[in-house]
Every structure is written in structure tokens, then in C-alpha cells.
Amino acid sequence: MTVVRVAESKTDETGSCDVERYLRPDGQDRYTISEVAAFTGLSAHTLRWYERIGLMPHVDRSHTGQRRFTNRDLDWLALVGKLRLTGMPVSDMVTYAELVRAGDDTFAQRRALLEATRLDVLQRIAELQGTLTVLDGKIDSYAGAARAQERTGA
Amino acid sequence: MTVVRVAESKTDETGSCDVERYLRPDGQDRYTISEVAAFTGLSAHTLRWYERIGLMPHVDRSHTGQRRFTNRDLDWLALVGKLRLTGMPVSDMVTYAELVRAGDDTFAQRRALLEATRLDVLQRIAELQGTLTVLDGKIDSYAGAARAQERTGA
DNA sequence: TAGGACCTTGGAGCGCACTCCAAGCAACCC
DNA sequence: GGGTTGCTTGGAGTGCGCTCCAAGGTCCTA
């Protein structure tokens, strides 16, 4: 199985957008659950759970009932991965997935959801930068204290 | 009860450092658990739990056994609040608290812990900035789609 | 001295996001 | 045909960080 690196702009359910693609074999479009687990870093358990809770669009099955994921599914999982990094709760991601399934009439709601998430992310970044100030102050004070201990031979 | 706003550099167990102080009454140095809950935004439950798990230095008691927090405790809780914002697990905060209790020989370990946390924070900020790119791309695509729908009278 | 607000404890419960288990079916290799 | 590996399911379990409960003691005001 050849795995190639692909990281370029893509087309998904809402038109082109920059979500970095997971590694995937060239030209293939049917993956087993363990292949997808390897590409995405998610466990097979988690992939099944995502499907159960409605976070995946309908996933194809083989004639014996085994899941066969497509490149579209990988694209979706790449987006989910990004949303997960934002700290968006899984329940909100499910809501988003439901809006996508509901069709193009839900663009405004989807956009509102993403804009709310965007504000959360900006706030979180600001918080983290605030913690960096404190952390750096503390680290400096320990460094200074260590130097003082050395000088006094402690 | 007079509550004044104080936000200045402070002196704590490691020397001066910039942790913003919680609101606190002027000149007072003994607070009940519900006062501390009001200042910090933590629940009384959480404050008791922090003490139980070893995340607080020893907290004074009244003659009848009720907790009486001091300004020092408020300073410590302000630092804990910042560490919590970094995403540091509570177990690591407990480790840090134990190092503080162990005395000045642990400066190097405390510093290492904070530097590891600092790197985590930097990485998290980078991740979040990556998600902003995706979010903005998506939001733009929905905005564009909405304009297109309007033009076609959909 | 009564009433209500506030405090104490150990331990149980909760919400989130997984994570794993048991029992069974399917595919493939020797 | 037997063995190994991988897949299926519903449901139970896990770890984290709280959050709450019951039963009782304390503080404050009138």
C-alpha cells in the first residue's frame, strides 16, 4: 500500500477551504476502519463512536457489513480534527454535522456556529498569552533564585 | 465589607511575580470559604476539594474548625487559576504544590515543570492559530455562498 | 432563645470524551 | 480445516475535574 503526502486546498461540502488532508493512498477511495485510524490518529473505537453519535455522514459498508470510508470521510474527519482542536464540544460538532446533512439552507446557522467558535478561540489565545506572562515571570524568578543559591554556595 | 480592586505585582513564595490578585477586602486577612469562593469564582466545594487533594498549603481554622483563608491563600489561588488556564492537569499542580511545600531545594524542579508547561502553552497557541485559519476559510466560504444564494433569489 | 444562613465531613454522582469488553462473524493463509 | 487477524455490535468502564448530598455543628440577628 502506497501512502503519499497530500497537503493542499481541497473541495468539501461547502466549497474550497484549507483543511490539511490526512495522509492517504494515492487514487484509492475505500478504506477500512483501521486504515482510517492510522491516517487520522483516532482509534477505531472512536471512529465507531463518532458514527454512533451522528458526527459522521453515512459511512458506506462492504457486502459483509464492514465500514468502507471514502476520501470524503477523511476530509470530514480532518475538519472534525480541527474543530476538536478549537475545544468545540462534541455536541456542537454533532449539531454542525446535522446542519451539513440538512442541506444548503443552513449556511447561516453553520456560519454563526463557526463564528462563535472563532471568538472562543480568540479568547482562549488571549488567556494563554496571559498565562505565558505569569509563567515567564515565575521561571525568571526561579532562575534568579538558583543563581543566588550558587553565589552563596548553598 | 469593603472590597477593593487590587492588581499589582506581588510577593509570593518565590519572590515577586506578576499574578493578578483576586478582589479582596482591604486590610483583612481572614476569609471564610464563601468569601473566597466569591473572590475567586471557584465554588466552596472546589476549594475544599483543592485542599483535600493537596493543592492548597495548610489552611488555618477558626477555634470551631471552620476554614479561615488568608491573603497568601488568595495569592496561591490566583496562581493556581493561571496554571489551570494553561491546561496543566490538576495532578501536575499538586506536584508543584508539593515542591513548594518541600522548600527552596526544589527551585530547579519547579522551574522545569513551568518550562514544560510553557512549551505546552506555546504549542497550544500555535494549534489554535491553525484552527483560526480553517475557521476563517469556512466562514468566508459560507458568506460567499450566502451572497450567491441572494443573487439567484434562492 | 429561636430561626436561618453558613460551615463541617466522607462519600457518592455527574458530564465529557473517549476506551474497552465480550461474543460472534468474515477473510485470508497454510 | 484450523489458526490468525480484523471486523461487527451493545453496553459497560475509565479518568478527569468537579459537583452534590446527608447529617450534623456553628454563627449571627432579633
From TrEMBL, chains A, B:
The keyword DNA-binding applies. Keywords: DNA-binding. InterPro entries: DNA-bd_dom_put_sf, MerR-type_HTH_dom, MerR_fam. Residues 30-99 form the HTH merR-type domain. It holds the Pfam family MerR_1. This is MerR family transcriptional regulator. It comes from Actinacidiphila acididurans.
